[in-house]
Here is the input.
Amino acid sequence: MKKVLFVVMAVMAIGFASCGNKTQASAEAADSAVVVNVEDEIAGTINALTENLEAQDANKFQEALAAVQAKIKELISANPEAAKQFVSQIQAFLKDNAEKIKAFAGDNAAVTSAVAALTEAPAESIVNGLSSLGESAEAAANQVVDDTKAAADKAVEDTKAAADKAVEDTKAAAKDKAGQTIDDAASKAKNALGI
Here is the structure.
């Protein structure tokens, strides 16, 4: 009996251990997929920036930088660590090619400010700043929704109060007119009767 119990306990222990390993293996696979995807994103982005740099088209380069900023925001929501890795690689590329960028972009303020926004702060600061910016933008959007709802509620209340006042004014005017009509009729009747 003790041997059977011991065998059952051993099988259960092996079963629990294997379940834990599967979960850990799944998490590790997901993390490695994110790393691979980030590395693919980095390579694709650097290729796009290189093409625009070689074409020396400031407008296209500006569009590529805007795409970089959008990608950073996307990565922040999915994996902030991957976003930091992405930003640091893009920063390295932009810093290495700073002279080439200045040569063709020159005094293009949009390109200059986009490059500065991506290179002047450490990657972690950029990621944290955009992350908190996203949170504050969401809070601001929620505040706008709340303010709009409050304004709409106030407008409904004001309209209802104005309608109620108009109804009361109409009732009072009708009552006054009815009273005047009755008084006029009574006067005519008295005159007709000679009273």
